[in-house]
User: Which sequence fits this backbone?
């Protein structure tokens, strides 16, 4: 392992994953540095969720090596308690628990001492604009509020790494934009490492300081650093480059620069 | 890292819940009772008392049952038998159901015998219990358990299988211990099914305990009914029957009350909470 690889919080070394006869991941090789916020973008079915589950340690790789904090997340599953937290596409709140009880439940699962639950839950719910809604059950909250509770639940555990799986894609654009911004501020402001998996190019660019473009079966088609201040022309060029990387037919031109028809967005991925 | 919050934010405004009396009124029970008593009063005027005794006679008999030591002991014995059988079946059935839900291999081997047991007529179990067991209480307990256990087991199994995989994955992503996973996800998820099983099995148990006592016991409501039948005492038959029916209705009401408390998180059908209607505005 190289010195730079050792510094990575998340390290995929030539990872492949095969389910029966279906290859979901093929020779996936990338690293995520501490406190980096990385977007992983790809078309539906390209192996994003499998990659996500490999990072989480829910499944083992068929070949290669996955390391998170230098350990195997599947073999050392319990070790990652309180070190990784997830915000899913849908909020996945427990319907029988109120907003604050859902935040408590995350801490209970993760083994946070009970005397810290209330202070942490109040704090995160307040930061996410849910003060006064702590006693509401999930069905009494809007979609955006539910997702805020899910974000509070993840951050309340105080993990080193936050993973997002299409966490904002089910929301309307106004709510999604506001939540994305809050999420980025929370990750950067609290020194967390973040990995956001999405099929939306706009979301990938809005969140990540780096965008990894996946192509099926999941492998890196492009690895793009996103400058802090982008002009419209640079942004459009990056979008085209990512779109070209995501599209299997685009071929070898993907990593080199813009490809495909300008302005084409066959899957609505520019949204 | 977290900021300290010294003052807890105000709780969300509570949604007004109807009182027990209002719910009883809305349930239609008062109308049913009035119609029943009126019909009974009219019918008993035109029929001999050995066919349908009058309300005052039955009421006197019911009071006598509740105030006479031996008769009250019969009633309490029957209720204790029902409770013992149901609680045993609930504990064993729920455990078996959850075990089948958690282990697919267990379901493969346990479901066929449970369905087989469920398919055997209740009266056959009563007769077999009389032949197999000499001890009366064991007979009745066995009949209660064998008849109600499949319902608890199958409800717990179905409820366990219906737990959304998304919720399990969410919980698993936090690396929970087994107990916290059971306490926070599994138990609340199967609770509605368990309440349904209780409501169904309560009526079944009260019906079957009488048959078991008629055939295999000398103490209990079943035995008292057998005695009344031999004396052609229709007043006693109606009084015992009504007492049991009222007790069952009260028990059903108690279960529904506990259920509504335990499942208060569920939105009321047809009446979406006011909070939900305004919640979406908060996103913008």
Assistant:
């Amino acid at each position: 392992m190289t010195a730079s690889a050792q510094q990575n919080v998340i390290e995929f070394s030539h990872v492949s994953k095969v389910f029966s006869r279906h290859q979901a991941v093929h020779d996936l090789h990338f690293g995520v540095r501490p406190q980096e916020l990385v977007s992983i973008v790809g078309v539906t079915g390209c192996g994003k969720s499998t990659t996500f589950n490999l990072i989480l340690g829910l499944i083992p790789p068929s070949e290669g090596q996955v390391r998170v904090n230098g350990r195997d997340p599947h073999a050392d599953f319990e070790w990652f308690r309180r070190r990784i937290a997830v915000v899913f596409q849908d909020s996945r709140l427990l319907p029988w628990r109120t907003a604050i009880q859902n935040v408590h439940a995350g801490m209970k699962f993760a083994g946070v001492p009970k005397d810290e639950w209330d202070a942490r839950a109040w704090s995160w719910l307040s930061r996410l604009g849910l003060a006064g809604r702590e006693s509401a059950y999930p069905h009494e909250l809007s979609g955006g509020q539910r997702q805020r509770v899910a974000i509070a639940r993840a951050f309340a555990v105080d993990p080193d790494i936050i993973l997002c799986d299409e966490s904002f894609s089910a929301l309307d654009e106004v709510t999604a934009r506001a939540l994305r911004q809050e999420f980025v501020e929370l990750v950067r402001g609290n020194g967390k490492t973040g990995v956001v998996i999405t099929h939306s190019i706009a979301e990938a660019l809005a969140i990540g300081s780096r965008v990894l473009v996946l192509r099926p079966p999941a492998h890196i088609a492009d690895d793009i650093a996103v400058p802090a201040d982008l002009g419209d022309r640079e942004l459009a060029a990056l979008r085209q480059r990512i779109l070209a990387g995501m599209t299997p037919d685009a071929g070898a031109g993907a990593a080199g620069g813009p490809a495909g028809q300008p302005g084409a967005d066959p899957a609505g991925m520019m949204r | 890292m977290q900021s300290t919050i010294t003052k807890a934010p105000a709780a969300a405004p509570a949604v007004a819940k109807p009182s027990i009396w209002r719910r009883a009124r809305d349930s239609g029970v008062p109308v049913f009772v009035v119609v029943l008593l009126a019909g009974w009063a009219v019918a008993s005027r035109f029929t001999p008392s050995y066919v349908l005794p009058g309300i005052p006679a039955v009421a006197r008999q019911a009071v006598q049952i509740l105030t006479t030591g031996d008769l009250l002991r019969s009633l309490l014995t029957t209720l204790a038998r029902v409770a013992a059988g149901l609680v045993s079946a609930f504990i064993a059935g729920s455990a078996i159901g959850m075990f089948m839900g958690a282990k697919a291999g267990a379901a493969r081997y346990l479901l066929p015998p449970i369905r087989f047991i469920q398919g055997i007529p209740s009266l056959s179990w009563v007769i077999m219990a009389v032949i197999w067991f000499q001890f009366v209480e064991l007979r009745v307990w066995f009949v209660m358990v064998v008849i109600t256990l499949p319902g608890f087991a199958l409800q717990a199994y179905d409820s366990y299988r219906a737990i959304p995989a998304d919720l399990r994955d969410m919980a698993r992503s936090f690396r929970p211990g087994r107990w916290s996973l059971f306490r926070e996800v599994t138990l609340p998820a199967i609770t509605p099914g368990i309440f349904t099983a209780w409501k169904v099995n309560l009526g079944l148990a009260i019906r079957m305990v009488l048959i078991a006592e008629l055939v295999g016991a000398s103490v209990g409501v079943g035995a008292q009914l057998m005695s009344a039948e031999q004396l052609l005492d229709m007043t006693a038959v109606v009084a015992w029957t009504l007492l049991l029916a009222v007790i069952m209705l009260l028990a059903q009401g108690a279960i529904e009350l506990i259920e509504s408390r335990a499942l208060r998180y569920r939105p009321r059908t047809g009446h979406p909470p006011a909070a939900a209607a305004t919640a979406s505005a908060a996103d913008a």
